[in-house]
Amino acid sequence: MSQKELYNVAILGATGAVGQKIMRLLEEKEFPVKQLKLLSSKRSAGKQMIFNGENVTVEEATPDSFKDIDIALFSAGGSISKKLAPEAVKHGAVVIDNTSAFRMDENVPLVVPEVNKEDLKEHQGIIANPNCSTIQMVAALKPIQKAYGIERIIVSTYQAVSGAGAQANKELEKQSKDFFEKGTMEAEILPVKGDKKHYPIAFNALPQIDVFQENGYTFEEIKMINETKKILHQTDLSVAATCVRLPFFTSHAESVYIELAKDGVHVADLWNELRNAEGVLLEDDPATQTYPTPLSAAEREEVFVGRVRKDLDNDRGFHLWVVSDNLMKGAALNTVQIAETLIKNNWLK
Amino acid sequence: MSQKELYNVAILGATGAVGQKIMRLLEEKEFPVKQLKLLSSKRSAGKQMIFNGENVTVEEATPDSFKDIDIALFSAGGSISKKLAPEAVKHGAVVIDNTSAFRMDENVPLVVPEVNKEDLKEHQGIIANPNCSTIQMVAALKPIQKAYGIERIIVSTYQAVSGAGAQANKELEKQSKDFFEKGTMEAEILPVKGDKKHYPIAFNALPQIDVFQENGYTFEEIKMINETKKILHQTDLSVAATCVRLPFFTSHAESVYIELAKDGVHVADLWNELRNAEGVLLEDDPATQTYPTPLSAAEREEVFVGRVRKDLDNDRGFHLWVVSDNLMKGAALNTVQIAETLIKNNWLK
């Protein structure tokens, strides 16, 4: 396959927030699409969407939907991925899956192209897109790991509600208005749709993203810990995470502490690595109050890094503030970039 | 002086958010007030406030305002404290100062009564109330330090806008409404009133609280680092802080990582210490999604702790989520508790 070929592409979960972003990115990036198939649950089937100026009818996803599909971009939830990804592979499609279903499967590459695109070579039909909060952190840390080694990561996250889906966005909007108009707020979705209890997110902070595991960590925290080690190819890396949902719509921010494997590194050295890193934009100048924020990073493609500081007690310790649009680099964009990388390198098979 | 005596009390900054809370707490706690003097800038002088059912006229603060005052509670900004606290002391008053003006002065006790009330014995007329984000952290960590020793703290904060004053609250409210009604937001106050640039706080996160120092840390971060060491009486304690302003009105939350001085400690051991700690309430049960949030802690007196977890890589490492009302324990309540402790122990002098 050469770069000039065109491909039959399917988007599963086409009507969701990430699915729609994927479609827009395929247009914007002039992805070599021969035919685009939009797939969804039975409920959303029949909807009309416009791709490159033409109407496309959303179809209900079935195992046979993937006949003649070259690239299938999955973003419809873990259980659907588990059921349909193997079927798509049987039909010869390469699946890029946006759920956590296959991420820790040792036969499935977990890829952020700027960080570990070589892992794509080993794919057996399914490739996993990492968790949103993981993607932006490893994108920022890879150049530092490469230059100086990293022995330890402690991260506290500041995550947008859109990571919990479009319903969570609506809940934040409704609660924000009700807070002023009614003085009360109803919570039905967050912190986790389907979990036992719900708390207001407007004018609040919820230290729970995804469900709790037996060890007291949330699944979001466990995902960040395990995925980071896998993507950075470093099983002995210490990673700790505390994940918090906050009342903003777009972009995750992260307060990241790292310990390098080398002494004597300066902030200017890290700045240098970050300035030259693919997909990373350094926005760090205390004198002019320059740092990234969730609002400034929204709708942007890059991972933004600011507030780089040396720890005052530990010569190998550094603090960073990492912000990126959770639906773009954190989901849709990274998915499309994986597909582009497969094509560019003839790794689609 | 015995506990039955009554005292002439002055509140400087009486019309501000913290000043008003202090007055309410003096009422609620039946503080032994003989006469209450309310002091402010010239601008607010003349206002009427009600204390214990009686009208009190706010007076402009001058050096002579402190004649015959026993206890002066200062909450009107650092420069005013620097000017008027020594004058109040000259008149024989004991000043409890809510600003950063004297906190790191070695002759000034910096006190959270549950943590280091003995330091009050050494006062020379001025006692400093710590920074809001510091108070709640040391209140939660003191029982752990006492039982197991703490060698290191890394904290990322989630701080309410009310820490920046009543104007910041109004800014968050206006921006939140404008976001939906106009689609634009104007920023004039936050992150720091009087600093060069302003950014919207509604539906955003600002990694700047107080002004930047030359080393790239903000003054809020430096305050947390230095004050924590002073209050916990441990100059060799490693403390790192990243302070972030978020779009909620009340309560600061903190993601706190600590390293103990002992091996083999379990989560249950920390729970045990926290359950028995004065002023602390443990709210920690993942099975029932029980953890504190800014909204649940608002208007409450305690420091709430949840999400206590052992680090997955470091036997001495633990993570905690600490939440408290920044205007209550973080400011007004701690101020009043210092005054109560001085009286109870005959340390007023």
From TrEMBL, chains A, B:
TM segment ranges: none
Binding site for phosphate: 103
Top-level lineage group: Bacteria
Alphabetically ordered keywords of this record: Amino-acid biosynthesis, Diaminopimelate biosynthesis, Lysine biosynthesis, Methionine biosynthesis, NADP, Oxidoreductase, Threonine biosynthesis
Cited CDD domains: ASADH_C_bac_euk_like (cd18131), VcASADH2_like_N (cd02316)
Biological pathway: Amino-acid biosynthesis; L-methionine biosynthesis via de novo pathway; L-homoserine from L-aspartate: step 2/3; Amino-acid biosynthesis; L-threonine biosynthesis; L-threonine from L-aspartate: step 2/5; Amino-acid biosynthesis; L-lysine biosynthesis via DAP pathway; (S)-tetrahydrodipicolinate from L-aspartate: step 2/4
Record-linked Gene3D superfamilies: Dihydrodipicolinate Reductase, domain 2, NAD(P)-binding Rossmann-like Domain
MF (Gene Ontology): aspartate-semialdehyde dehydrogenase activity
Reactions accelerated catalytically: L-aspartate 4-semialdehyde + phosphate + NADP(+) = 4-phospho-L-aspartate + NADPH + H(+)
Chain positions recorded as NADP(+) binding sites: 15-18, 43-44, 162-163, 326
EC number: 1.2.1.11
Domain Semialdehyde dehydrogenase NAD-binding intervals: 8-123
Residues reported in the UniProt entry to bind substrate: 159, 245
Pfam families: Semialdhyde_dh (PF01118), Semialdhyde_dhC (PF02774)
InterPro entries assigned to the protein according to its UniProt record, in alphabetical order: Asp-semialdehyde_DH_CS, Asp_semialdehyde_DH, Asp_semialdehyde_DH_beta, NAD(P)-bd_dom_sf, Semialdehyde_DH_NAD-bd, Semialdhyde_DH_dimer_dom
Active-site residues per Swiss-Prot or TrEMBL entry: 132, 252
NCBIfam families: asd_B (TIGR01296), PRK14874.1 (NF011456)
Function of the molecule: Catalyzes the NADPH-dependent formation of L-aspartate-semialdehyde (L-ASA) by the reductive dephosphorylation of L-aspartyl-4-phosphate.
Protein family per UniProt: Belongs to the aspartate-semialdehyde dehydrogenase family.
Quaternary data: Homodimer.
Name of the protein: Aspartate-semialdehyde dehydrogenase
Taxonomic lineage from the root: Bacteria, Bacillati, Bacillota, Bacilli, Bacillales
Gene name in the database record: asd
